[in-house]
Amino acid sequence: MKLNELALELAKAEDENSEIEKVEGRIPYAFPWNRRLKEPTRVEWSSTDSADAFDSNLKNHRDKLEKYGWLDTEIYYDLNSYGYRCDEFYEDKDSYVGIGECFTYGTGLPADMSWTSLLEKNIQKKVWNLGLCTTGLDTSFRTLLTWLPVIKPKAVLMLENSTLARETWYIDENNEEWNTCIGFWSDLEWQQEICQSKTERYLNRRKNLLAIKELCDMNQVEFKLVTAFERNEIGYRDWEENKDTKHALARDLMHPGLYFHQAMVERWKKELE
Predict the structure, then answer these.
(1) How far apart are CA 163 and CA 208, in angstroms?
(2) If both were cysteines, with which of 11, 48, 71, 242 could 259 make a disulfide (CB 3.0 to 4.6 Å apart)?
(3) pLDDT tens per residue across span 259-273
(4) Could you give the CA distance from residue 103 to residue 226 in angstroms, rounded to a whole number?
(5) CB of 241 within 8 A of CB of 257?
(6) Are strands 165-171 and 177-183 parallel, antiparallel or unpaired?
(7) Residue 103 and residue 165 in contact, taking contact as beta carbons nearer than 8 Å
(8) Average pLDDT, stretch 182-204?
(9) Which domains does the chain have, with CATH numbers?
(10) Which tens digit of pLDDT belongs to each residue from 113-144?
(11) Which of 137, 149, 130, 167 is nearest to 32 (CA)?
C-alpha cells in the first residue's frame, strides 16, 4: 500500500463511528486498572503514599511520622467506579468540579482533609474531586472532556497540574489501548526529555489550558484557575508557617498536609465571591 493510500485509510478509520465509540469507552476511566475493574474500590495506599514508602519512612523517619501524626492514623482512598476519589457521577448544576493532580486528590491524607472536601463543607455545595496523582494537563483535559457534560457543574476549579507530566496512549500485545503518564521518573530517556523540554512544556500547557477553557465555554461552565506558580507560593508559605505542626506534611512525607488544603479553601472562596 502506498503512503498516501495508507494515510487515507487511517484517516477513514479515525472517522468511523465504531472507532470513536471505542475511544469514548476508554477515556472516562482514571487509570488502566480502574478500566479493568469497573467498580467502586477502597484502597489503603495510593501513588507515592505506598506501603513500601511508609515502611521505609517507618525505618528511617519514624520521628517525622510521629511528629506529623501518621504512625497510627488510617487512611483510605475510596474511589468511584471510574477511579476518582469522589461519589459516582451525577448531574448537579449547583456543584463545583475540583481538578488537578496530587494537590487536589489529597495524596497521603484522609479524604476529609482535601481542599475539595473542606470547601464542600464550608460553602455547603457539592465539590467533586477529579484530581489524579502524577498527572499533567493532558489528563485533566481528558477528564473534563468526559465528565463536564455529565455533571454540568457551576464552575471548574483547577489547581493547575505540573508541566513535568504528560499522558500518552500505547497499544499492548493484544492490540488494546491503554493510558500511561510519563515524566522525569520514566525509565525511557526520550520520555524524560519530552517532559524536561521547556518548549514542549510551554506549548503543551498553553494548548491544554486553551482547550480546557473552550470545553468550559462549550458547556456553559465557569473556569477558575490557580496556577502552579501560585500553588507553589501558597505551599511554601504554608510550610514555613506550620512545618512543626501535626498534619503539616502528608503521610508520604512528600506532599503538603492539612494547612495547605485549608489555605486553598480560603483562596477558592475569594475566587467564588
Answers:
(1) 11
(2) 242
(3) 999 999 999 999 998
(4) 12
(5) no
(6) antiparallel
(7) no
(8) 87
(9) 3-272 (3.40.50.1110)
(10) 999 999 999 999 999 999 999 999 999 999 99
(11) 167
Could you tell me what percent of the chain has a pLDDT over 90? Answer: 81
Residue for cell digits 481538578?
99
For the chain, the residue count is: 273
* Start-end of H helices in the chain: 3-15, 17-26, 32-37, 51-60, 62-67, 102-105, 115-123, 137-151, 189-196, 198-218, 228-242, 258-272
What are the residues whose beta carbons fall under 8 Å from the beta carbon of 255, sequence distance 6 or more?
48, 49, 102, 103, 107, 108, 109, 249
Task: Please report where in the chains the cell 487536589 appears, as a residue.
Answer: 104
C-alpha cell at 53: 514508602
Residue pointed to by grid coordinates 495547605: 260
Three cell numbers at 176?
488494546
Residue 114 Cα distances to 77, 119, 121, 247, angstroms? 12, 9, 11, 12
